[in-house]
Amino acid sequence: MKLIIKKLKKHYDYLIKLLLLSIWLVICITPILILFMASISDTAIFQTIPDLFSLEGTTLVNYRISINQGNFFFHLRNSLIIAGSALALVLVVCTPMAYGITKLSSRKAKSAVVFGVLSTRFIPYVVIAMPLYLLFRQMGLSGSLPGVIMAHLAMQMPFIVWLMVGFFDGIPGEVEEAAIIDGCTPFQIFFKVSLPMVLPGLNAAAILAFIMSYNEFLFGLFLAGPNTRPLTVGIMRFVGGVEVGAQYGVVAAYGSMIVVPIIIFALIVNRYIVSGMTQGAVKE
Amino acid sequence: MLKKYFKPWRFIMPGLILGLITLGVPIYQALKNSFYDIRLYRLGSEFFVGFDNYINLWNDSIFLLAVRVTLIFTIGCTILSIFFGLSVASVLSSDKIRGSLVARFFMAFFIVPFVATQVVTGVMGRLFIWDAEFGLINYLLNTIGLQAQAWLTSPNLALPAAIITNSWRLTPLALLVLYAALATIPETLIESAKIDGANEIMIFLKIKLPMIKYHIIFVSMILMTSAFREFDVIYSLTGRGPRRATNVLSLMVYEQGVSVADMGYANAIAFTMFLIVAVVTVIFIKIFKLGDVGVS
What is this model's ipTM? Predict the structure, then answer.
């Protein structure tokens, strides 16, 4: 009898835990679900929960407005150009940089670099955006692509360097020593031995940096002009003030088109995101 | 021999130069601008004012309020994210669940708030979650018989709503790191404690918590600096809020610089924010002796 109760209790524990996790899952995805359901509803407003899931009055008109009046694809193109070009440049320059940092022998130089990387990794973005806004305005280049991309480089660089230092540190020294004995030059070792070993880490870093740039709004608001505004700025024209009415349905459709692809992408490359986020925060 | 052989500066140089351009220039400009009187509407006629912008900060009630709001927002977000992150991570890392397919399934969805675009999170919160008439929160409150609230337009409730919204976004970070930390605690340690008669709460407080102490401090620092600089979520959720209830420093910089067009003052606030982060970073490095990383 005692044994049965114990067994029941064990399963009971397990089920309770699954229930708790499911509640958190609901908290995580319900807001996005509401946004999506609002985007395909003609009223875009829900009075009750069953209301939310009813497919009555389904419409695509909000999407049509987002794409036509909201220039969705134009802003998408800008977002991809900004995120893509910043990321490409950062990867080319910062991957070797991170590798070099792990090979520094002077402790002083190392702590200086670590301070530089960390203090800029946590830098408030207004500290980058505000002076650049003025600088590019003074040069008569306000709203141009280089300004926005420069800000995105500043945001991605410390993050990628920090992450890659962590991944390069994980390579056992013996592997590289063996390559030296085989007569490889430092650059050969970097490209043929070390880089392939951190490829999953590099993927993780690149994916996270891309998501960061795609989601970025502040730099777009400060530095982008009519021809360079990313998606995150594009949606704002349909959002009124708290007192002024917003176009609920259009905002929902526009927001869904921004957020659903990035979430699906994140679910697909989940493994890399988890490893990148963990590595980014943990020393070892 | 390994390190001498590599001549590491050759690898570092290109990145260092790019860093000096993209990060060094703005930081230097922020510092320089903060000593000038620069008005956007008459560019070219700026003049040196020394520490005037910084002195004015201390007599500016809007700035002092913004400091207070930023502090509450930062601490609130950090505490909430750590609390929920640690709670969920504890359940996720319990035996039979951790490392299993079930854990991987849940974890995939648990990071959704973190990757969701911040402005979308903000407008979603404003229109569908916290809205006084049609919002989910008020619907739930009504369902359990509580009074609906005008969340975003009430000076007392706008900041809590912003804190909860941003914590929703930041919790995955805490959850992930703390789960990774908890999952490394050997099962045998917990088993032997159980044999000694310790209950779940005792095990959590006396064994698990001390073992992940550093991870908690580390992730708190990241959460704090993240919340401290948050702009997107607040701008799109409440803006500066009723009676500037959610006017954090980042928003104030934007308002002073772009709307008031007082660039010198805006840069002084921005540079003050940078100094705060630099100090936090130094503390951070001291706690973790981060200068020593990379001993391979």
Answer: 0.92
